[in-house]
Amino acid sequence: MALSDACPVQAGFDPLSPAFLEDPFAVMATLPLREEPLFYAPSIGCHVVTRYADVEAVVANPGTFSAAAAQLPLVALDDEARRSCSTAATSRSRRW
Protein backbone atom coordinates (compact mmCIF):
# COMPACT_ATOMS: atom_id res chain seq x y z
CA MET A 1 0.00 0.00 0.00
CA ALA A 2 1.41 3.38 -0.98
CA LEU A 3 1.57 6.18 1.58
CA SER A 4 -0.96 8.18 -0.42
CA ASP A 5 -3.44 5.26 -0.13
CA ALA A 6 -3.13 5.27 3.64
CA CYS A 7 -3.21 9.00 4.29
CA PRO A 8 -3.80 12.11 2.19
CA VAL A 9 -0.61 13.88 1.12
CA GLN A 10 -0.32 17.65 0.94
CA ALA A 11 2.86 17.98 -1.12
CA GLY A 12 2.67 21.79 -1.16
CA PHE A 13 2.32 22.21 2.61
CA ASP A 14 5.50 23.56 4.19
CA PRO A 15 5.29 25.09 7.68
CA LEU A 16 8.75 26.57 7.18
CA SER A 17 7.86 28.41 3.97
CA PRO A 18 7.83 32.21 3.98
CA ALA A 19 4.09 32.21 3.16
CA PHE A 20 3.24 29.99 6.14
CA LEU A 21 5.49 31.90 8.52
CA GLU A 22 3.92 35.19 7.40
CA ASP A 23 0.29 34.03 7.68
CA PRO A 24 -0.30 30.41 8.74
CA PHE A 25 -4.08 30.90 8.87
CA ALA A 26 -4.20 31.90 5.19
CA VAL A 27 -2.17 28.84 4.17
CA MET A 28 -4.28 26.50 6.30
CA ALA A 29 -7.45 27.98 4.77
CA THR A 30 -6.36 26.70 1.35
CA LEU A 31 -6.22 23.08 2.54
CA PRO A 32 -9.23 20.72 2.46
CA LEU A 33 -9.10 20.24 6.24
CA ARG A 34 -12.81 19.43 6.62
CA GLU A 35 -12.36 16.37 4.39
CA GLU A 36 -8.73 15.63 5.34
CA PRO A 37 -7.98 16.79 8.91
CA LEU A 38 -4.92 14.52 8.97
CA PHE A 39 -2.36 14.55 6.18
CA TYR A 40 1.24 13.74 5.41
CA ALA A 41 3.58 16.66 4.66
CA PRO A 42 6.63 15.49 2.67
CA SER A 43 8.37 18.82 3.27
CA ILE A 44 8.86 17.89 6.94
CA GLY A 45 8.46 14.12 6.68
CA CYS A 46 5.64 14.09 9.23
CA HIS A 47 1.91 13.68 9.55
CA VAL A 48 -0.01 16.83 10.43
CA VAL A 49 -3.01 16.64 12.77
CA THR A 50 -5.27 19.68 12.52
CA ARG A 51 -8.39 19.07 14.64
CA TYR A 52 -8.22 19.94 18.34
CA ALA A 53 -9.87 16.70 19.49
CA ASP A 54 -7.45 14.66 17.38
CA VAL A 55 -4.46 16.58 18.75
CA GLU A 56 -5.71 15.89 22.28
CA ALA A 57 -6.00 12.17 21.50
CA VAL A 58 -2.47 12.08 20.09
CA VAL A 59 -0.97 13.93 23.05
CA ALA A 60 -2.84 11.73 25.54
CA ASN A 61 -1.54 8.51 24.00
CA PRO A 62 2.28 8.63 23.71
CA GLY A 63 2.44 4.83 23.60
CA THR A 64 0.73 4.85 20.23
CA PHE A 65 1.88 8.19 18.84
CA SER A 66 5.57 8.90 19.18
CA ALA A 67 7.07 12.37 19.02
CA ALA A 68 10.62 11.02 18.96
CA ALA A 69 11.24 12.42 15.48
CA ALA A 70 10.11 15.86 16.65
CA GLN A 71 13.46 16.24 18.38
CA LEU A 72 15.35 15.85 15.11
CA PRO A 73 16.35 18.98 13.17
CA LEU A 74 14.02 19.86 10.29
CA VAL A 75 16.97 20.80 8.11
CA ALA A 76 20.35 19.17 7.80
CA LEU A 77 22.91 20.60 10.19
CA ASP A 78 26.20 21.84 8.80
CA ASP A 79 29.47 20.72 10.42
CA GLU A 80 29.69 23.74 12.73
CA ALA A 81 26.12 23.22 14.02
CA ARG A 82 26.76 19.49 14.60
CA ARG A 83 29.90 20.31 16.61
CA SER A 84 28.00 22.90 18.62
CA CYS A 85 25.17 20.45 19.43
CA SER A 86 27.66 17.75 20.34
CA THR A 87 29.60 20.11 22.62
CA ALA A 88 26.42 21.30 24.34
CA ALA A 89 25.22 17.73 24.92
CA THR A 90 28.60 16.75 26.37
CA SER A 91 28.67 19.68 28.78
CA ARG A 92 25.08 18.96 29.89
CA SER A 93 25.91 15.33 30.63
CA ARG A 94 28.93 16.36 32.72
CA ARG A 95 26.71 18.47 34.99
CA TRP A 96 24.68 15.41 35.95
Protein architecture, described:
It is a single chain. The chain is 43% helix and 8% strand. The protein is mainly alpha-helical. It has one domain (3-95). The chain has a two-stranded antiparallel sheet. The radius of gyration is 17 Å and the shape is globular. The termini are far apart. The model is unreliable at 92-96 (pLDDT under 50).
**Could you give the distance between the termini?**
46 Å
- How are the strands ordered across the major sheet? 1-2
Instruction: Give the low-confidence spans.
Output: 92-96
Order of helices and strands: HHHEEHH
Strand content: 5-15%
- How many separate helices? 5
Mean pLDDT: 81
Rg from alpha-carbon coordinates: 17 Å
Rough outline? globular
Count the beta strands.
Answer: 2
Number of separate domains: 1
Helicity level: 40-55%
Largest sheet: 2 strands, antiparallel
Tell me the structural class.
mainly alpha
